[in-house]
Specification:
This protein is α+β, with helices and mostly antiparallel strands. It has 15 helices and 5 strands. A 5-stranded mixed sheet has the order 1-2-3-5-4, covered by helices on one side. The longest helix has about 55 residues.
Length: about 425
């Protein structure tokens, strides 16, 4: 019958959704399995005290057995506790001289030696204690049954004090031993994760480096795709629209005998074609303006300031030219910030500054508007945060109610 209520919760807490008997058996087998893997280290420690002359040979043998012992411990963790211990990777094969030298210098190698020489013997001793505890508990709990194997003339009429004491101690030992095995298993597996696996800090550093490289590749690919789209628009759709506008202009100038309705249609088509060209020019400039690639960020920001619907005071002081990706992000930040000022701030003037110092590009956009800019309000600030964060930049928005609003962005110049 399945346990219920408080008993079910206690049962789940003890076994982690595993039946108690299987939980106790698994931990016991895990601790006992540490005994044979501890024998090489026990032999090395014994030789240190009994046969000092054999210490170099034993240590050399232990060094050769280190990969095998580590593999056995990893298999023991996986087979009995379902703990997947990551392997330590090296850049060179073990049979090459440089590969052996790399393994000898590696910090992970000496952590593994520390486990095999210190933790493994203690884990083997713990496994032996668990075996003795189970055997002593079974022997003590069954002492009364053993007394019935003696001849009738030698048996006492009832339970003696010694039999009662041994039975109680045996039952208590049977109850305590699973917890002893569980504690030893948890301690052993925790130390194995720390000493036999790769260094977590180093693995995180390597992972961060890999992610930074992959992100840089994605940004470069996105920049190339943006340039391709710009080129296709400029050389394809834009040229067709220009040709269409020219043909409509020629038709309007040369076809003088058309009815007024036809002339009105041509005039309307010519005007819409010119508006479409202007919108397409704005779209191309928003993707990646040619002036940004040809003349740099100073000229590109000057173009944004000149096209802004309000007076913009621009200050640019660049001691070094940022990378193409950072320039594109900076251009987008200033363009989007000025668009937000024009749409929402009700400002009369704006100040834009771009300065580079110590490998960082600092951009400030300040207006004298009403303030109250909120990234959750759909004013484009969320897009700014995402674009700035894509290159490990930071953005600070200070916009109290009543103004002024100041947007400060810092970007690394190296990307």
């Amino acid at each position: 019958m399945a346990p219920s209520g408080a008993l079910r919760r206690t049962y789940t807490w003890i076994a982690g959704h595993t039946p108690w008997s299987a939980w106790a058996r698994r931990n016991t087998v895990f601790t006992v399995a540490a005994v044979p893997t501890a024998l090489p280290a026990v032999a090395a420690i014994t030789s240190f005290f009994l046969a000092p002359g054999r210490i170099p040979a034993v240590l050399a043998l232990l060094m050769l057995l280190r990969p095998l012992l580590t593999g056995l411990q990893r298999s023991r963790l996986w087979a009995l506790l379902a703990v997947d211990l990551p392997q330590v990777t090296y850049t060179r094969p073990w049979w090459s001289p440089r590969g052996r030298l790399e393994r000898l210098r590696a910090e992970s190698t000496w952590r593994q030696y520390g486990y095999h020489l210190l933790v493994s013997p203690l884990a083997g001793l713990g496994g032996a204690l668990v075996v003795l505890a189970w055997a002593g508990g079974l022997a003590g709990a069954s002492v009364f049954a053993w007394s019935w194997t003696r001849p009738v003339t030698e048996r006492a009429p009832g339970w003696t004090d010694d039999e009662v004491l041994l039975t109680v101690l045996g039952v208590l030992l049977l109850l305590v031993t699973p917890w002893l095995a569980a504690g030893l298993a948890r301690l052993d597996s925790g130390l194995a994760r720390r000493l036999l696996g790769p260094n977590r800090a180093r693995e995180l550093e390597r992972r961060v480096e890999d992610l930074a490289e992959s992100r840089a590749g994605v940004l470069d690919a996105a920049d190339l795709e943006r340039r391709r789209i710009e080129r296709d628009l400029h050389d394809g759709a834009q040229q067709r629209l220009v040709s269409l506008a020219m043909n409509l202009g020629i038709a309007r100038a040369t076809l003088s005998g058309l009815p007024p309705e036809a002339k009105a249609v041509i005039d309307e088509a010519h005007r819409e074609a010119k508006e479409a060209i202007e919108e397409l020019n704005s779209l191309v400039r928003g993707l990646h303006p040619a002036v940004l690639e040809d003349r740099g960020l100073d000229a590109a920001l000057s173009g944004i300031a000149a096209r802004a619907p309000l007076p913009v005071e621009l200050t640019v002081d660049l001691t070094e030219r940022p990378g193409p990706t950072v320039e594109a992000v900076a251009y987008f930040v200033v363009s989007e910030a000025l668009a937000n000022v024009a749409k929402h701030a009700r400002a009369s003037r704006c100040q834009v500054g771009a300065r580079s110092h110590g490998g960082r590009l600092r951009i400030t956009v300040t207006d004298d508007g009403v303030g109250g800019a909120d990234p959750a309000g759909g004013t484009g600030l969320v897009g700014l945060r995402k674009r700035v964060g894509s290159v490990d930049g930071t953005i600070v928005i200070n916009s109290p109610l009543g103004g002024p609003t100041a947007v400060t962005v810092e970007l690394p110049c190296a990307l």
